[in-house]
Write a structure and sequence with these properties.
The chain is α/β, with parallel strands linked by helices and about 450 residues long. It has helices spanning about 20-25, 35-45, 60-75, 85-100, 115-125, 135-140, 160-165, 165-175, 190-200, 230-240, 255-265, 280-290, 325-330, 355-365, 430-440, 455-460; strands spanning about 50, 75-80, 105-110, 130, 150-155, 180-185, 205-210, 220-225, 245-250, 270-275, 295-300, 315-320, 340-350, 370, 375.
Length: about 450
């Protein structure tokens, strides 16, 4: 359902209590997004939900409202699991704003932060816990939290959690929560591992899909510059003069992010960086500075591809192409949010045309191609020698198991789950141990996924 069709809709009639409706009005939420319009009535009715929606589609509100209603009407707690610290912080802030003066308490449990305030929050018997899997397991092992009173569970960005190697932690958490609970799962893609979770741990969930996997926002103007590695900095300098608004730059590695941020500051721009070498307080400070306008430019690795929700980002610049094919969609989804227009530019080296072709296959769009000087080039077409990336350790996989990035042609949108398809409507804190276990295939959640990233690459995030 296109967003423009929802401009005539409001949140009335979706099963939302009068108190929460007043909070939505006070927070100036007027028109629901498609995922909110479809998921909220089902979830507030107590049914399990699998939601497939692109980044920036409003999933946070789609599960926050049902969670708050559930915990306010029962004596159970809500648990929301997310892949990254940044995403967890944003979700917890949304929950607190929606709760208002209702007296509902939250606890945020994330890695990279002092555990003592988290312990105090957990001892205060919160109504909703927002957590990353690794740190939550730490608190479970230390006896700071028990999962026996969880009445509603949300897995947000489920595909990302599996890709980051959280399968063992998710398996343990899902086995530890009561079976008599409501579960909501949201994901931008539907690999087999996600379908397996739904089949094993959910009760006849209603599947709601508002965009096929790989779908990008309609109003994002995308283009690719073919540029040699040594010429990227000069091209970036030129683009930063051309675009005057806020800019989010993605680097493949933390070392690259640091180098780019330093170069941007030397050019006279205000900038900060987010990557795994920075402390949690440094990352939150950088994100807050970017949100408030203190920094015009933010340089980040893929830990931020689903963890940044900042309005009016004019340009997303992929200084490097992502290792994971589908991360392209999540990166550029930081602009063009909530129906606004945006610009996404990617740099590709001359030997990366196959990767560009595969991205085109994923999003079903032929991308405009330019030279480093700005001259229009011929579109990138299928290359001979198959579609698999040459043996250089790349992660652009095709065929084989149903792991991320492995669907034929990258955009089948096919659904492989075995539970009833009752409707055809159409954010860190992980520990290295969890990542390595997730790759070993020892867990039922991760066994069907191919090798995601090398341990070195994951550590580089």
């Amino acid at each position: 359902m296109p967003r423009e069709e929802l401009e005539q809709q409001d949140f009335n009639g979706l099963g939302i209590t009068p108190g929460l409706l007043k909070r939505l009005q006070a927070l100036k939420f007027v028109h629901p997004t498609p995922i909110q319009y479809k998921a909220i009535p089902v979830a507030t009715a107590g049914e399990d939900v699998v939601g497939i929606a692109q980044t920036g589609s409003g999933k946070t509100l789609a599960f926050s409202i049902p969670v708050l209603q559930h915990v306010s009407s029962t004596k159970t707690m809500g648990l929301i699991l997310l892949p990254t610290r940044e995403l967890a912080v944003q979700v917890e802030e949304t929950i607190r704003k929606l709760a208002g003066t209702s007296g509902l308490r939250t606890a945020i449990v994330i890695g990279g932060a002092n555990p003592r305030p988290q312990i105090r929050q957990l001892r205060a018997k919160p109504h909703v816990i927002v957590a990353t899997p690794g740190r939550l397991i730490d608190h479970i092992e230390q006896g700071n939290i028990h999962l026996s009173n969880i009445g509603i569970l949300v897995l947000d960005e489920a595909d990302r959690m599996l890709d980051m190697g959280f399968a063992p932690q998710l398996e343990r958490i899902l086995q530890g929560v009561p079976t008599d609970r409501q579960t909501m799962l949201f994901s931008a893609t539907m690999p087999k591992a996600i379908a397996d979770i739904a089949q094993k741990y959910m009760k006849k969930p209603l599947r709601i899909e508002v965009a096929k996997p790989g779908t990008t926002a309609d109003k994002i103007d995308q283009e690719v510059f073919i540029v040699h590695k040594d010429d990227k900095m000069a091209l970036m300098e030129r683009l930063l003069k051309e675009y005057k608004g806020t800019v989010l730059i993605f680097s493949r590695t933390k070392h690259g992010a640091k180098k780019i941020a330093r170069a941007v500051r030397l050019l006279g721009h205000t900038a900060d960086e987010i990557h795994s070498n920075r402390t949690q307080s440094q990352r939150q400070s950088a994100l807050k500075g970017f949100t408030t306008g203190k920094y015009r430019i933010l340089v980040a690795t893929d830990i931020a591809s689903r963890g940044i929700d900042v309005k009016d980002i004019e340009l997303v610049l992929n200084f490097d192409l992502p290792d994971q094919l589908e991360d392209y969609v999540h990166r550029i989804g930081r602009t063009g949010r909530a129906g606004q227009s945006g610009k996404a530019i990617s740099f590709a080296c001359p030997d990366q045309k196959r990767e560009i072709y595969q991205i085109q296959q994923l999003i079903n769009v032929t991308l405009p191609i330019k030279s480093s000087s700005g001259e229009v080039m011929d579109p990138i077409k299928p290359l001979s020698g198959g579609q698999s990336r040459s043996s250089g350790g790349g992660q652009y996989r095709r065929g084989g198991s149903a792991g991320r990035g492995s669907r034929p042609q990258g955009r089948s949108g096919g659904y492989t789950g075995n539970y009833p398809k009752r409707s055809s409507s159409g954010s860190q804190g992980g520990r290295s141990q969890g990542r390595s276990q997730g790759r070993s295939g020892g867990s039922g959640l991760g066994a069907s996924r191919p090798q995601r990233r090398s341990a070195t690459r994951s550590a580089d995030r």
